[in-house]
Amino acid sequence: MCGIQLQVWTEQSSSRWEDFYREHGSILRNRGPDHCQMVDATKHFYSCRSVQLRASVLQMRHELIPQPVQIKDDMYLCWNGEIYESNLPSSQDEEQHEELWEYETSDTLIVKEALKVALLEQTIGDDIDDGRNIGNAIAQVMSKLHNAEFACLILTKDNIYYCRDNWGRRSLLRWNCPDGSGSFQIASTAEISTSDAENKSYNQDDKEEKEDGQEWTEIPPGAVYRIHIGGEDGTMSTSVIPFSSSSSLLSPPSSNSILPSVVPPTPPDGVSTELWQASFVLEDCLRQAVKMRLDQHAPSAVLFSGGLDSAVVAALAAAEQTATSTADQKHQQLYLYNVSFGPTFEKSNDRKAALVTAGMLKDRYQDTKDILFQDIVVDWEDIQKYEPHIRTLLQPKNTLMDVNIGIALWFASRGSVDGDENDVYPDGENRIRSPRALLLGMGADEQLGGYGRHRKAFDKGGWGRLKEELDMDQARFWERNLGRDDRICADHGKEARFPFLDANVVNFLKGLPLDQICDFSLPPGEGDKRILRLVAARLGLDHASGLVKRAIQFGSRISHLSDAKRFGSRRKAKGEASVKSK
Q1: Which residue range(s) make up the domain with 151?
Q2: What pLDDT digit, counting tens, does each position of 248-277 carry?
């Protein structure tokens, strides 16, 4: 994983904006604590006053590869992501059938070499179409990454290219300078000074007013964006090259085309044979998705509410670590991060559920003693201390709901406030290393009908209306959730990974009829995410399999504490209230 940041300053731009962002890099460095460097690329853009490309690196696979990476004399790559499966040529022996996630090879080098090959295959000359051909080559490579989570930026003479994977699981933002000069930035995170963030306050009445820092916008996923800066006057033009239509999906499996590894002869009462079989296929897909996303050489962590989605991810992770351990190889620790807030944290529904489910996991997977539950309790003083920084990470998100969710995610993904000194390992050895891979359950509700409004949609318009609601949720997921969540979690030098958004999981669910996914004739806690509840029950998660959906801001009690402190009561708070300057 890495942090990406490009600054382009034109001759017409006011120096005050450049000075304001000159110190950019502190947040970028948090995303990649292992290495950070800058390349001055001004000489490749004759009409610009300054062009600087920065990248920070979080080493996850094999050796550390400093970024930006030079592809050729005037071309640089910044890559932020993980490739799990692709159609790229492999340096591995194909007879071994190894997947990219198993390689002892850096993804950055794989992408670099693939780009070099693709560029050679394009007709690249000195004519005006040269930039378009380069863009086509980049889109060709990215389209082959059919099971990957990434954002990347490529800089070459007079041209800038950037893109995100089809779901938008890695954050990438654009900032346009308000002075109209054409200066801009492209970055993993916004960078607003702490003093500026501290001067923000909530305004409950004016949702439309544009705020300082709101020039930052999320870059849409699923396409390569090209900015051409040419001529002596620095004229800019923008074009879009979509990924190929098949890039986000593998060949869609279905319950009829793929048989589960093991199917009992008869399903439980009230469960059709088709649904029962489909639940086993989903379990197999999720098991492989979790396996690919666990850190192979270090501890991993799960953002753990104790609810259905995170419990399934944690159970599959624990099972995988038990299955792969040997007498000569110590288990990798699995951390379960649970967060609750305030003086009444004992009332947190997430904490109650997490304690129960963590106990069940430890009982079921006794061969691995390294399931470590971290009970993270945060008080109002800590929130006040870190909130300005968290609001900076949230940009361009600025609602009260986003702030509450962001605070919960930031403290949860940080892990124990005391480090890991209090964790006791059965063999007494010191094997402490903070997890860098953080598995999240996001994406389950949007695909499996997990929200209360999904039930309302079905009640109003049947399966057709439900499908429209699910399609809408999935289409806007990148803008509403994923970029925000990546910015928050990555601030601790952790890489957010999303098993429910694995291409095989997504494709399988897309191939299922909706009545095999959810059943709203059953009450909440049974009919919503019906297929996943069957998986959870088989994994021994009896408690979690019957829990009703509860959003993190409510389950952790951050809303209870935050709203009461800010507005006197939760009733006076409005979740869509925006953040504005005093």
Answers
A1: 2-242
A2: 544 433 444 455 566 666 888 899 999 999
Residue at token pair 């480090």: 419
Domain of residue 481, CATH code: 3.40.50.620
The 3-state DSSP composition of the chain as helix, strand, coil percent (nearest 5) reads: 40, 20, 40
Provide the domain count of the chain.
Answer: 2
Angle between helices 380-394 and 400-414 in degrees, nearest 10: 110
CATH number at residue 232: 3.60.20.10
Sheet of 235-242, strands arranged across: 69-72, 75-85, 147-156, 159-164, 223-230, 235-242
What tokens does 402 get? 């986003």
pLDDT confidence of residue 91: 43
Backbone angles phi, psi at 355, to 5 degrees: -65, -40
Map residue 137 onto helix, strand or coil. Answer: helix
Within 10 A of 228 (CB to CB), how many other CB atoms are there? 18
Task: Please tell me whether residues 340 and 480 are part of one structural domain.
Answer: yes
Residue appearing with tokens 């998100």: 397
Tokens 């953040």 belong to which residue?
579
Residue 552 belongs to a domain: yes
User: What is the 3-class SS of 389-414, one letter each residue?
Assistant: HHHHHHCCCCEHHHHHHHHHHHHHHH
CB 271 within 8 A of CB 534: yes
- Pairs from 354-359 (Cβ < 8 Å, separation ≥ 24): 354/304, 354/305, 354/306, 355/306, 356/306, 356/543, 357/304, 357/306, 357/311, 357/314, 357/541, 357/543, 357/544, 358/304, 358/306
pTM, 2 dp: 0.89
- Residue 265 included in any domain: no
- How far apart, in whole angstroms, are the C-alpha atoms of residue 339 and residue 320? 25
Residue bearing the bigger pLDDT, 92 or 51: 51
To which residue do tokens 């409950």 refer? Answer: 204
**Backbone dihedral angles phi then psi of residue 338, each to the nearest 5 degrees:** -125, 135
Say how many residues make up the chain. Answer: 582
Cα–Cα distance between 235 and 346 in angstroms, integer? 59
Residues 166 and 213 in one domain: yes
Q: For 97, phi and psi rounded to 5 degrees?
A: 55, 35
